[in-house]
C-alpha cells in the first residue's frame, strides 16, 4: 500500500538498522525474567522488581540526557546508544559463563538498557525529521510500525526455540549483536549532519530538564495526545501480568497457548500499519487518528471475560487482534503528528520527556494494579482497567493542528 514510495538510501539504512535492532529485542523478549527464575531462582517479588524498577531507574537516568542530546549530532548519539546497549547486554552472558551472575547485575543492565532505549528513540525521532521532508514522515513511520509488528510475530517464538536449544542467555547474546549491527547500519547512512545550533552560551540549568514537558503542555495538540497515550499505554500494560495470572493459573492455559494468544493477533498490527496511510489520505490524518484512538479503547475490557478451553483462547485472540489492529493504525499517525508539531530544535527533549513519562507511568500503574489484583482478584482488576480505558478517548485532540512549528518556534497555547 505504501511500498512503492521511495524514501532514499539513507532512510533504507536507518530502516534496516531499526529492523535488526527490533529483531534482537523481540528474540530476547522475556529473557531477563526467565533468567531470574531459572538461573537465579528468583521469586515473584524479585521478578516484579526486575520488570518495574529497572524501567523506572532507566527513565530517571534518561531525564538529563534529553537536553544534552538536543545539541549533539543525532547520528552519533544513535550509534553510541546502540554500542552502550550492546556492551551492557554482553555482561550478562559473560557473568553467566563465569558463574557470577546476580539479580543486582540484571537490574543494573535493565536500567542501563532502558535509559539507552529512551535516548535512542528520542534521537531517532529527531534524526528522522531531519532526514525526510514532512510529507514523507507518515510513510516512514508506517514502515517502521509495520516492521515492528512483523518482528513481534516471529521474534518471541524464535527466541523461545533458541533458548531451548542453546540455553537461557542465547537470546541476550543475539540482542547484543543486533545492536552492534544496528550501529553499523546507522553509520552507513552517511551524509553530512550539521551540528545543532546552541543558544547563547550558558551553563546548564536544572530547569532545562523540564523543557520537554513545558513544550508538550503548552501545545494544544500535543498536550491531550500526551495524556491520552501515557494513560492508555499504562493501563494496557498494567493489566498484562494479571491476564497472565488468570490464563496460566485459574483458566489452565499452557505456556504455548498463552504465547499464541499474543503472537497471532500481532498480524493485526501489521495490517493496521499498512492501512494507516491510505486511510489518512482518504479521510484525513486527524479524523483517522481520533477514530483509531477511540476504537482501540473499547477492546481491552473484553479481556476480563475469557473462560477456559478453546472458546476462552479465541476470545483473547479476537480481543487482542482488534486492539492491536487499531493500535497499528493509530501509532504511525500519532508519531507523525508528534514530529510535525514539534520544532526541530526541541524534538529530542520532547520525545525524551514523553518516553520517560510513559515508562514511569507504566511502572507505577503496573505496581498499583498488582495490589488491586491481590485485593479484588485478577478478573475484577482487568475489568477496572478496561473501564478506565473507555475514558481515554476524551483526552484525544478535538481539532486538527493548524500549523507545524519550525526551528525554535514555540507552540501556541489555547
From TrEMBL:
It is a multi-pass membrane protein. The chain crosses the membrane at residues 12-35, 47-65, 225-249, 255-276, 288-305, 311-330, 351-372, 378-396. It comes from Streptomyces fungicidicus. It holds the Pfam family MFS_1. InterPro entries: MFS (IPR011701), MFS_trans_sf (IPR036259). It is found in: Cell membrane. GO terms for molecular function: transmembrane transporter activity. This is MFS transporter. GO terms for cellular component: plasma membrane. Keywords: Cell membrane, Membrane, Plasmid, Transmembrane, Transmembrane helix. It comes from the Bacteria.
Amino acid at each position: 500500500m505504501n511500498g512503492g514510495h521511495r524514501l532514499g538510501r539513507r532512510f533504507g539504512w536507518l530502516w534496516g538498522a531499526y529492523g535488526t535492532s527490533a529483531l534482537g529485542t523481540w528474540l530476547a523478549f522475556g529473557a531477563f525474567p526467565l533468567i531470574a527464575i531459572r538461573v537465579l531462582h528468583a521469586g515473584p517479588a524479585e521478578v516484579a522488581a526486575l520488570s518495574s524498577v529497572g524501567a523506572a531507574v532507566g527513565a530517571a537516568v534518561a531525564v538529563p540526557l534529553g537536553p544534552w542530546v538536543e545539541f549533539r549530532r543525532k547520528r552519533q548519539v544513535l550509534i553510541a546508544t546502540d554500542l552502550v546497549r550492546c556492551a551492557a547486554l554482553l555482561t550478562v552472558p559473560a557473568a553467566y559463563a563465569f558463574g557470577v551472575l546476580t539479580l543486582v547485575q540484571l537490574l543494573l543492565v535493565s536500567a542501563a538498557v532502558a535509559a539507552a532505549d529512551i535516548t535512542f528513540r528520542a534521537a531517532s525521532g529527531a534524526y528522522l525529521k531531519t532526514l525526510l521532508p514532512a510529507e514523507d514522515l507518515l510513510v516512514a513511520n508506517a514502515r517502521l510500525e509495520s516492521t515492528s509488528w512483523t518482528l513481534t510475530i516471529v521474534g518471541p517464538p524464535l527466541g523461545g526455540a533458541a533458548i531451548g536449544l542453546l540455553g537461557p542467555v542465547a537470546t541476550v547474546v543475539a540482542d547484543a549483536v543486533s545492536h552492534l549491527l544496528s550501529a553499523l547500519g546507522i553509520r552507513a547512512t552517511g551524509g553530512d549532519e550539521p551540528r545543532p545550533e546552541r543558544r547563547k552560551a550558558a551553563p546548564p540549568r536544572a530547569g532545562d530538564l523540564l523543557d520537554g514537558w513545558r513544550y508538550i503542555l503548552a501545545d494544544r495538540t500535543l498536550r491531550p495526545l500526551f495524556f491520552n497515550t501515557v494513560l492508555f499505554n499504562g493501563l494496557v500494560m498494567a493489566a498484562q501480568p494479571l491476564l497472565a495470572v488468570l490464563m496460566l493459573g485459574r483458566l489452565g492455559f499452557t505456556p504455548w497457548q498463552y504465547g499464541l494468544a499474543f503472537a497471532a493477533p500481532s498480524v493485526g498490527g501489521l495490517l493496521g500499519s499498512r492501512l494507516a496511510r491510505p486511510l489518512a489520505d482518504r479521510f484525513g490524518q486527524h479524523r483517522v487518528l481520533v477514530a483509531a484512538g477511540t476504537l482501540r479503547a473499547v477492546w481491552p475490557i473484553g479481556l476480563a471475560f475469557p473462560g477456559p478451553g478453546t472458546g476462552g483462547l479465541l476470545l483473547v485472540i479476537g480481543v487482542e487482534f482488534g486492539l492491536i489492529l487499531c493500535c497499528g493504525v493509530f501509532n504511525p499517525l500519532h508519531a507523525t503528528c508528534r514530529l510535525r508539531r514539534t520544532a526541530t530544535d526541541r524534538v529530542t527533549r520532547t520525545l525524551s520527556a514523553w518516553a520517560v513519562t510513559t515508562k514511569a507511568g507504566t511502572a507505577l500503574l503496573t505496581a498499583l494494579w498488582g495490589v488491586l489484583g491481590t485485593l479484588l482478584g485478577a478478573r475484577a482488576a482487568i475489568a477496572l482497567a478496561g473501564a478506565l480505558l473507555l475514558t481515554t478517548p476524551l483526552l484525544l485532540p478535538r481539532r486538527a493542528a493548524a500549523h507545524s512549528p519550525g526551528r525554535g518556534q514555540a507552540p501556541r497555547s489555547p
